[in-house]
Amino acid sequence: MARVNRAKIDRNRIFEYINSSDDLTVVLRGHLSLEAVLNHVLDASLSGGVTGELENLRFMQRVDLVIELGKIDADTRPMFQKINELRNRFGHDLDATITKEDAMTALGLLPAWALQPPRGHLKLDLPQGPSSAIRWCMTMLWLRVIEKGLSGHAPPLPGVVDVILVPGTPS
After folding, report:
1. Which of 145, 151, 169, 171 has its CA 20 to 30 A from that of 18?
2. Is the pTM of this model over 0.90?
3. Tell me: the pLDDT tens digits for 15-25?
């Protein structure tokens, strides 16, 4: 069976999605971008790539397979699970929003290797505050999957993560 034509890894696009002021865009497109990079890791790691039944794997099954292959750290799983829970909520609830509780949970799940958000920039009580935490966490996951999972096959990445934490404040 032939490999599926994958979306290219485009850091500008992922940063555009996660810097959106719209929570729906942040969650759904951010989740899709994470899934796309997981697919690239699986394609690079499996001799036949992701074909046949592997194409039907759910998001967390893909995460688990990439972890099992040793391509990403097992300590990333809880964060992927949180992002997936958010995606499911947004996919089934027209009124879904990113809450302060979502933000606090996600930040608490950041593995030890992840950069912490700059002090004072996550203003969780402001309207965009909770989504800024989710954007930060998604960025950390996306960069880690590329760094660890696509070692030697990844596009060049910036030394500094270009994420607007709260619109209107310097990042």
Report:
1. 151
2. no
3. 787 778 889 98
